[in-house]
Amino acid sequence: MGLKAAPEDQALLLELQEFDTRLQQLDHKLRNLPETAQLAELAKESETLRRDLVERTGALEDAQAELGRVEADVKVVEARMERDRDRLQGTSSVKDVQALEQELAALARRRDELEEIELVVMEKVEELEGGVTAAREALAAVDARIAETTAARDASAASLEQEKAHVSKDRETIAARVPDELLALYEKQRARYGVGASHLRAGVSTASGVMLNATDLGVVRAAAPDDVLLCPESSAILVRTAESGL
């Protein structure tokens, strides 16, 4: 003998299904928040900018180290020139004077070369500093967008969770009114097929969207009002109402 349930109890399943459908929709929205996709793209952009900043910072540090070496070389040359000038003032040897003057001339040329290199490296450092500043600003802008989008995502999720809580509470109220055996069958069919109850409206099963054929409609018409029937297309409990067209 098949399961029996009063028509009004079976009709409660349609309300229950509406709540379950709404909960599924809310879960889908939670899993597919637009902000989540935006955050994934922003994370990629942030990672790219961070790598760029690291590379630019490394290049700047190398250039600064190079500038430091050139500046140190200039100081060494200048110190040697100062020493030779002191020696030149303190010697009366013609040979030493000639040697010192030649060395001073060579050191002056070397100092000029180093100063030219120093200018080039200083320009390079200045350019790289500008690049690092720009990279930091770009990264900061993306991080700000991430913070804003995260806040928006959290707000959207909180709103959906709140709605889920209300729907779940309303669902519990309806479920408490459904007889245990009928509720168990509904939950079983919903877990197995995705839909627990289907409204037969004008001969069409709402769960499948398919009109029942003449044979199936004949079976439905012959069934007692309290017989619990399953939709031949969706396997959900087929709920009959005044709109069923029987």
- Which sequence of strands runs across the widest sheet? 3-2-1-5-4
How many domains? The number is 2
CATH architecture group name of the largest domain: Orthogonal Bundle
- Helical residues, percent: over 70%
Annotated CATH topology of the largest domain: Helix Hairpins
Assess the beta-strand content as a share of residues: 5-15%
Counting H and I runs of at least 4 residues, what is the number of helices?
A: 5
Low-confidence stretches: none
Q: How far apart are the first and last residues' alpha carbons, in Å?
A: 23 Å
Rounded to an integer, what's the Rg over CA atoms? 42 Å
Class by alpha and beta content: alpha+beta
Mean pLDDT across all amino acids: 95
**Main beta sheet:** 5 strands, mixed
Topology order in helix (H) and strand (E) letters: HHHHEEEHEE
CATH class of the largest domain reads Mainly Alpha
Task: Explain what this protein looks like in three dimensions.
The chain has 246 residues and is an alpha+beta fold. The chain has helices spanning 7-31, 34-89, 94-175, 180-193, 214-222, and strands spanning 197-201, 204-205, 210-211, 229-230, 237-240. It has two domains: 7-26 and 179-240, no CATH class; 33-174, Orthogonal Bundle (Helix Hairpins), CATH 1.10.287. The protein has a five-stranded mixed beta sheet with strand order 3-2-1-5-4. The chain is built from five helices and five strands.
